[in-house]
């Protein structure tokens, strides 16, 4: 069974979640509290799209549209960091264009080996060893790992070809590409025989170029009729468009001039998604099937008018191979000229462009659904919310300190926020308890650590008093009673 050709697929990709940090305290003999030693969580795996020259269709994504990378592992004690999640690589053919659901082009993948990050893995949370500071020497909490990015992407395959063959159904495009190259497309005498684009490699002297056979166009193809709309994208990269005209058609309502006019109208209505206009591409007209006497006479009649439009005209016959050599070298010359006019390609290099997720900017605006409430938006506050374990009081206090240093509390106070009013950050709503100077309020404990609150240890003053009692034998309180 022949494999299906799929040139468009919708996929759902999900990167791995980052692992949680570990809250641990080093313990060994004679060191019951040896300091925090919790390791960081591992980063989640990315989902990558990699161009592979051995892949020619998007068929795999048609049957398996969901892709998920590995999650990062949680950190452990003794400063052991969690393992990073496994990166998932998805192989795509050259010429794949990555778009959003709204049609925005994210990447144009044409060179083998090119890599595109389809979904970014979540960062691992910091362990309490990384959170230790002079003010917080023994953190009893760790940060949570961030969730991985999940998105829906549209993949479209737009063939990388130098020459595009366009024409009405059964005009002889498949026959032409079969005799000019080693491609073996299906050939028959009924409309829409070609259901998928065919690619062939053509050699003209020292020039080698690729040729794409686009399925037949009909009037209205640019509006979705027939097969044209689905496959017009395959001629967007072509250096030259070739009108293949059937001069031996038995349709009384068609002739070479009207066929060319109808195709030109459809090409003018189609807007390439990669930019540019098809009207700027060079045109060549091929009058096919001149081995039929009536077709040869018709070709002689229409040739002067087509040449008057500035289009090179070639009379060919795929059956007898008449005129094919001249056509091949003419197309090779046009392709060479087009390549010479293009800017010289530079060697590809990897450029790292980190996303500005740590942007200090944030906005505070009234909550339209909560009277007296406010909504805080910003990359850093929302990221801190995702990292916070709200079941840990000390972690919540750490979050409050970070928001205060960023200036969120000052901005809330400036806009008239009252203690106890609801504030929403990153989808989490809590009652605001300010800690900025100038705001009079009674604050509850930001965070607690039971190890620091343990008062069972003997203080220095108690040890000094115990030594005095052992030396003198009388407590200070008893001396005072005797004097009275």
UniProtKB/TrEMBL annotation:
<feature type="binding site">
    <location>
        <position position="194"/>
    </location>
    <ligand>
        <name>Mg(2+)</name>
    </ligand>
</feature>
<dbReference type="Pfam" id="PF01926">
    <property type="entry name" value="MMR_HSR1"/>
</dbReference>
<protein>
    <recommendedName>
        <fullName>GTPase Obg</fullName>
        <ecNumber>3.6.5.-</ecNumber>
    </recommendedName>
</protein>
<feature type="binding site">
    <location>
        <position position="174"/>
    </location>
    <ligand>
        <name>Mg(2+)</name>
    </ligand>
</feature>
<feature type="region of interest" description="Disordered">
    <location>
        <begin position="454"/>
        <end position="484"/>
    </location>
</feature>
<dbReference type="InterPro" id="IPR031167">
    <property type="entry name" value="G_OBG"/>
</dbReference>
<keyword id="KW-0963">Cytoplasm</keyword>
<feature type="binding site">
    <location>
        <begin position="192"/>
        <end position="196"/>
    </location>
    <ligand>
        <name>GTP</name>
    </ligand>
</feature>
<feature type="binding site">
    <location>
        <begin position="167"/>
        <end position="174"/>
    </location>
    <ligand>
        <name>GTP</name>
    </ligand>
</feature>
<comment type="subunit">
    <text>Monomer.</text>
</comment>
<feature type="domain" description="OBG-type G">
    <location>
        <begin position="161"/>
        <end position="336"/>
    </location>
</feature>
<feature type="domain" description="OCT">
    <location>
        <begin position="354"/>
        <end position="434"/>
    </location>
</feature>
<dbReference type="Pfam" id="PF09269">
    <property type="entry name" value="DUF1967"/>
</dbReference>
<dbReference type="InterPro" id="IPR014100">
    <property type="entry name" value="GTP-bd_Obg/CgtA"/>
</dbReference>
<feature type="compositionally biased region" description="Acidic residues">
    <location>
        <begin position="475"/>
        <end position="484"/>
    </location>
</feature>
<feature type="domain" description="Obg">
    <location>
        <begin position="3"/>
        <end position="160"/>
    </location>
</feature>
<keyword id="KW-0378">Hydrolase</keyword>
<feature type="binding site">
    <location>
        <begin position="288"/>
        <end position="291"/>
    </location>
    <ligand>
        <name>GTP</name>
    </ligand>
</feature>
<keyword id="KW-0479">Metal-binding</keyword>
<comment type="function">
    <text>An essential GTPase which binds GTP, GDP and possibly (p)ppGpp with moderate affinity, with high nucleotide exchange rates and a fairly low GTP hydrolysis rate. Plays a role in control of the cell cycle, stress response, ribosome biogenesis and in those bacteria that undergo differentiation, in morphogenesis control.</text>
</comment>
<keyword id="KW-0547">Nucleotide-binding</keyword>
<dbReference type="Pfam" id="PF01018">
    <property type="entry name" value="GTP1_OBG"/>
</dbReference>
<comment type="similarity">
    <text>Belongs to the TRAFAC class OBG-HflX-like GTPase superfamily. OBG GTPase family.</text>
</comment>
<dbReference type="InterPro" id="IPR027417">
    <property type="entry name" value="P-loop_NTPase"/>
</dbReference>
<dbReference type="InterPro" id="IPR006074">
    <property type="entry name" value="GTP1-OBG_CS"/>
</dbReference>
<dbReference type="InterPro" id="IPR036726">
    <property type="entry name" value="GTP1_OBG_dom_sf"/>
</dbReference>
<feature type="binding site">
    <location>
        <begin position="317"/>
        <end position="319"/>
    </location>
    <ligand>
        <name>GTP</name>
    </ligand>
</feature>
<dbReference type="InterPro" id="IPR015349">
    <property type="entry name" value="OCT_dom"/>
</dbReference>
<dbReference type="InterPro" id="IPR036346">
    <property type="entry name" value="GTP-bd_prot_GTP1/OBG_C_sf"/>
</dbReference>
<dbReference type="InterPro" id="IPR006169">
    <property type="entry name" value="GTP1_OBG_dom"/>
</dbReference>
<keyword id="KW-0460">Magnesium</keyword>
<dbReference type="InterPro" id="IPR006073">
    <property type="entry name" value="GTP-bd"/>
</dbReference>
<keyword id="KW-0342">GTP-binding</keyword>
<feature type="binding site">
    <location>
        <begin position="213"/>
        <end position="216"/>
    </location>
    <ligand>
        <name>GTP</name>
    </ligand>
</feature>
<dbReference type="InterPro" id="IPR045086">
    <property type="entry name" value="OBG_GTPase"/>
</dbReference>
